[in-house]
């Protein structure tokens, strides 16, 4: 039994060593070449499929971009836009560049709006603080003996009442 196991083990090792992990060599013929040709053919067909898809996508994007440019220029002739899209297709780089410019314009517009809003808030706060400070100075005035001057306080209350009525 022990001899049988050794024999089977040797047989398995021989079989594993003789097993080829690749196809084709000099004796068998052109195994590598066939594989290479099939791979190249597959890559070529894949490239054709991608080009077809990209052409369809490009046509869609061109029509969208043409509509956007027509809105910007004010042109409403759709057939003219279609003819232009057929003549010169817009690539992915151009489309991405166009989107980048739009985003940049939008960002700048938002920045300007925020700056205007901040300036208006600042001016309003400045005006409020000046009025508050002037009111405080009037209300804080004292006589020589340290008593509050009632004239200013009565005027302040009168102004308040007038504002409430209007």
Task: Explain the overall architecture.
With about 170 residues, this protein is an all-alpha fold. It has a domain at about 30-90. The protein contains five helices and no strands. It has helices at about 1-20, 30-75, 80-85, 90-140, 150-165. Helix 2 runs antiparallel to helix 3. It is elongated. The relative contact order is 0.03. The mean pLDDT is about 80.
Major β-sheet annotation: none
Question: How many beta-strand segments?
Answer: 0
Run of helices and strands: HHHHH
Give the oligomeric state. Answer: single chain
Count, helices: 5
- Average pLDDT number: 79
Assign the structural class, choosing from mainly alpha, mainly beta, alpha/beta, alpha+beta, or little secondary structure: mainly alpha
The unreliable regions are none
Percentage of residues in strands: under 5%
Please outline the helices and strands:
Blueprint: H1 2-18, H2 31-73, H3 78-87, H4 92-140, H5 150-165
Helix pairs in contact: 2-3
């Amino acid at each position: 039994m022990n001899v049988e196991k050794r024999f089977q083990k040797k047989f398995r090792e021989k079989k594993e060593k003789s097993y080829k992990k690749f196809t084709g060599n000099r004796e068998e013929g052109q195994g590598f070449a066939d594989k290479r040709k099939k791979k190249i053919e597959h890559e070529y067909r894949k490239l054709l499929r991608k080009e077809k898809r990209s052409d369809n996508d490009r046509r869609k994007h061109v029509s969208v971009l043409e509509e956007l440019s027509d809105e910007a220029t004010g042109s409403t002739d759709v057939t003219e836009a279609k003819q232009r899209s057929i003549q010169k297709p817009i690539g992915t780089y151009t489309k991405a560049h166009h989107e980048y410019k739009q985003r940049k314009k939008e960002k700048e517009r938002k920045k300007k709006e925020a700056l205007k809003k901040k300036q208006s808030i600042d001016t309003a706060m400045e005006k409020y603080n000046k009025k508050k400070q002037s009111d405080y100075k009037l209300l804080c005035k004292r006589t020589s003996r340290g008593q509050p001057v009632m004239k200013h306080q009565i005027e302040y209350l009168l102004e308040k009442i007038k504002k409430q009525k209007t």
